[in-house]
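Entry:
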Amino acid sequence: MTTYSKLNEQLQGRNRDSRKISNNTYMVRNGGNISIRLHNTNVVTITPEDDIILDSGGWHTSTTKDRISGYARIYQSDGNWYITHGGKVYRFKDNMILHNDGTVTGAAIDDIKEDKRIKAKVKAYAKACADAVPLPEPGAGDCFYCHMVTESNESLGDATHNTEHIDLHMAEGYIVPSLVFHALKESGNTDFIMTLVFANPDNYMIDMAKERVYKSVYRYILKRKGYAV
């Protein structure tokens, strides 16, 4: 079991405050605690009492899961993360605490019906986006949070961890070209696919374009709703 004292032994000398342990991952002193920091998120924080605080930063990615797995027993089922601690299983939630005495506080409620409701809503919206292809080019008239990007090319919605605008789009049936663009890009679609999706007046290879939009938007939104994809 990883303990605060073991981590403290690794933060000595020139590396007293910070030490690189993997790609984009550092062990850092965080106040009186020690954290495992992936990019800008302290995904694991261990206190001097050996309590463990987990935080995905809102992104349930395979890399985040891998970093957490070094300090907690985590597994994935049906798009959800689960933590085993003290002989019991808990659904993952950001800032949940695995106490040294085997108890857990801050775990999420495992609600299968709610999961199905959310996924059905996301599927319906993804289908609506696909049905609307070809779409106009993304532009300034799109949702501010979907269209605006930071210097690192991250959407404003992602940069501020704001997902309320996506909920509004789904409720209103508002198809946002910028959201579709970011979804396609995140899924690794090429420039060729982009030309099929946006401003394709001849409907060239339209079925392929619709399929890519559906899958990409579905995964994109589920990820922002806290599901592992």
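The radius of gyration is 21 Å.
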